[in-house]
Amino acid sequence: MEKTSALPPNRSISLPSRLHPTSLRAEAELNKLRVWEARLSSSSETLTAKNIQTGLVGLSEVYRCVEELVYSSLTQQALLSHGKVLEHALDHSVKLLDTCGVVRDAQRKMKEHALRLQSSLRRRGTESRFEDDLSSYIRLRKKLKKEASKCIRSLKGAERKFTLVPLSKDYHLAMVVKVLREVNLMTSLVLRSLLLFLSSQGTAIKNRHGRCSFIAKLKPKEKVKKIINEMNEVGSVDDALYHVLHGTEEIPMAHRKLENLVISIDCIEAGLDVVFRRLIQYRVSILNVLTK
């Protein structure tokens, strides 16, 4: 499975201690996310739904602090003559909102197909129906993987262009600029992690008649148990379906893994919805400052 080691190297914020309390809270929340990022970047960590939920919760807390920071009179006074800073952050937030939309749509489709497969497994007497639904699921996975790769490349390109720098020796202004940059980059990182999660692969999933195949190649049987232990909810469904198709895994086990995937998607959706609303409010806050 692709790891998040491809994500940007750790960044840190070093700010003066005599800053607005909200800025210190924002820094603390960003540092928590940085620990989360470092853990995911390690070779021993699997990109699970629980890890994604942790990132989304942390990101939501960061936006809550940033909203308070932007609305503070001290921040608004500091930004009076530096509207370009907010305009740059506003432009980048459009890309983040667009990506949220893509991810939400991908999750909805994956959930629909997973539920359909659950229904097919319950009525396994009609084998052709199961294979048709499996083929449809595989086609969706391939399509979503391509879309995820495209979004990840786009986010990385936007990150390289987002180069806000402190504009003066004003400590508070320098802090605001750094926090705005960090929250945008961290949002991009969390979304990329989520895209990687949704495009995770199992060892193999292949129609026994050769009509449809997944991207990954089948691993030697003696390695299957070890690989399954390293998989997340998406990858484990791939292998469960493959083994059901080939009669090497019981249907109830595959059904439970599909159910677990649906539950995981529901939990991630809830967290992403909160981030989406926070991101919209973040844009509103910036627009309010710009129009004053």
UniProtKB/TrEMBL annotation:
Q: Which residues cross the membrane?
A: none
Which GO biological process categories is it annotated with?
Answer: root development; shoot system development
Q: Which domain of life is it from?
A: Eukaryota
The family database entries (InterPro entries) matched by this protein are listed as: BPS1_pln
Q: State the name under which the record lists this protein.
A: DUF241 domain protein
